[in-house]
Amino acid sequence: MEWYYAEGKEQKGPVSEEQFTELLRTGVIQQQTLVWREGMTAWKPYGQVVSDSQPSSSTGPALLTTGVEGNQAPQVPEPFSGVNFGGAENQREAALAKVKAPAICLIIYACLMGGMALLSLLGVMTNAGMPDLSQMDPEVAEMVRKMQGPVQLATVFLTFVVAAVVLFGGLQMLKLKSYGLAIAASICACLPCACPCCFIGIGFGIWSLMVLNQPDVKGQFN
User: Fold this and answer.
1) Which residue in 105, 97, 79, 85 sits closest to 35, CA to CA?
2) Which of 14, 87, 99, 185 is deepest in the core (most CB within 10 A)?
3) pLDDT value, residue 34
4) Is the link from the previous residue into 79 a cis peptide, with omega within 30 of 0?
5) Using an 8 Å Cβ cutoff, are 12 and 2 in contact?
6) In this structure, how many other beta carbons lie within 10 angstroms of the beta carbon of residue 10?
């Protein structure tokens, strides 16, 4: 028997029983997802279909559209009028709840990186932390002195860029917007940088990527 299900404002299907089971396993279809199959009179949340013990008629669905006959699945209109579509809202709220913690961690890590980069910039400007070159060969010492400033500035600039990407990606992730930027921020958090706490960022980045790749989260991004 084939199934149809609503994803966002679109009708998906038909899918076989095996495909439907896989969608359940991966979280694409949840308890509140609207589904329909032959023998149902209306689209219902999957959880209600499972718990509903009353037999249904085989006249086909009637709530999501008009002019549908027999066992032809109806088209999901926009907006979803005439049906209780609280399930879609619940799915978005569930996705927001999942991304909230890793997104906040990315934002905090970005602030830490920015703070460390600012301290490094101040160090370059004041020559703080410069190694003692008095014991080196004068020519070597002069070469090191000339190279150290530009290298440090390049490192600081790169850290600022990475911190900015992580910060804005985390902010967009909190609102389920800009999926690509959220992925980029998570990857940037995993990159080694001048920040002493970069190992924390690796954990945050991996956690964020795992959440973002969940089908029920990915599908809620605008």
Assistant:
1) 85
2) 185
3) 86
4) yes
5) no
6) 10
- What would the two tokens of residue 40 be? 């149902």
Contact 186, 208 (CB under 8 A): yes
List pLDDT tens digits, range 49-75: 887 644 444 444 433 443 334 445 555
Q: Could you report the per-residue pLDDT of 112-135, keeping only the tens digit for each?
A: 888 888 887 777 666 655 555 566
Q: Which DSSP string corresponds to the chain?
A: --EEEEETTEEEEEE-HHHHHHHHHHTSS-TTSEEEETT-SS-EEHHHHHH--S---SS---SS-SS--TTPPPPPPSS--SS--HHHHHHHHHHHHHHHHHHHHHHHHHHHHHHHHHHHHHHHHHTTT----TTS-HHHHHHHHHHHHHHHHHHHHHHHHHHHHHHHHHHHHHTT--HHHHHHHHHHHTS--S-TTHHHHHHHHHHHHHHHTSHHHHTT--
**Which of 101, 95, 120, 96 is closest to 203 using CA atoms?**
101
Cα separation, 141 vs 148, in Å, equals 10
- Two tokens at 12? 């998906």
Of 75-89, 122-136, 148-162, the poorest mean pLDDT is in 75-89
Q: What is the pTM of this model?
A: 0.53
Between CA 88 and CA 86 the distance in angstroms is: 6
- Region 79-107: mean pLDDT is 72
